[in-house]
Amino acid sequence: MKKYIPILSLLFTPFVTQAQQTITGLALPESAVAYKGGYFVSDIGVQLDAVAKDGDGAISYINGGKLEALRYFDDTLNAPKGLDIIGNILYVADIDHLKGYNITTRKKVFDLNLEGKAVLLNDLSRVDDSSLVVTDSFKDHALMVNVHTGKWSVLKGEMKVPNGIVYNAHNDEVYVCSMGPDLDGTGKLFAKKLHDDNAAFEPLEGSPAGVLDGIVLLDDHRLLVSDWIKIKDPATGNLFVYDLDKKQYKTITTERAPADIALDTRKHSLLVPQLLDNRLAIIPLKKLGL
Fold first, then answer.
1. Domain limits for position 127
2. Does the record carry Signal as a key word (predicted)?
């Protein structure tokens, strides 16, 4: 029978799915990004004030399933939000500044001062080796920023409280999810051809509505979007899977206050900052049926 043991082991060993992890001890986590084997998380700080220049914000680092550093970079941050990485530079939106930090040296290497021009820089997404797109939630628009020159421009099209943003290089589309005027839950999905100067952000047909926060590309045909449902005392949240071809979506119920979600493509997991509970949930995509 010995020669059959490997086969029998395969037959009777259950398929093991990576378990969900929850990282605690954060301080109002808003955004996350995967980097090699770990995760960077932006923490708004002790007080939930998206535009307070109180200096209590930070970027945490999670490694090996543990909170390794609550403040990875020794620099003053106020209410940091969206994160993305170009090369070994971590970029973060912090109210009216867009900052970049060398991950290796932990030093600040970029600081675009938009005081008086931006109000609430929120999410950001890498376009190429020199460019990012960034939402300004209180200006109702998105920006294109060259991180080499510091030059920036406003992209055409108004959206009411735009939040999450993601760029798809395969079709040159930028996708944005909004929270709706006064965060009233009527936020929608928008899209625009990035390098078409005549194109403006337009609502996507069949879009879900909600207090939409984060957005990622599952593939070239599907978006995954997080929804608070409501801002005050939410009991649960939603994840919407929107099909760009079929113009329809399905809903996955999740825990409350899902903020700026991100993908860990290495581990096939979704990173969900649970802002009001000071946690980061790391959820296997299989568990979500994705």
1. 19-288
2. yes
